[in-house]
Design a protein that fits this description.
This protein has one domain. With 84 residues, the protein is of the alpha+beta class.
Length: 84
């Protein structure tokens, strides 16, 4: 799974497989914690990310939501900046 972005110990990944199904989403990894976020709502669909990391991921997702949707729809990898 390609790494899309890294910031404050959070790693954002997305599958680029034609077999991928479900709502458009990305994966966030923070230490031993993992979560899946809906791109359109930025809701955590599953996982155990700490609240602080969830806030960081949502803040980042808000900034790059359109780019994430484009990547999901096109299956084209693009590295995105982290939070500053």
């Amino acid at each position: 799974m390609p790494v899309i972005a890294r910031f404050y110990g959070v790693i954002i990944k997305m599958y680029f497989s034609r077999s991928e199904h479900g709502v458009p989403h990305f994966h966030a990894v923070y230490g031993e914690h993992n979560a899946v976020f809906d791109i359109q709502t930025l809701e955590m669909l599953e996982g155990d990310l700490p609240v602080r990391a969830q806030r960081l991921v949502r803040e980042w997702g808000t900034q790059y939501q359109q780019e994430l949707l484009r990547m999901w729809n096109s299956n084209e990898f693009k590295r995105l900046p982290g939070l500053e």
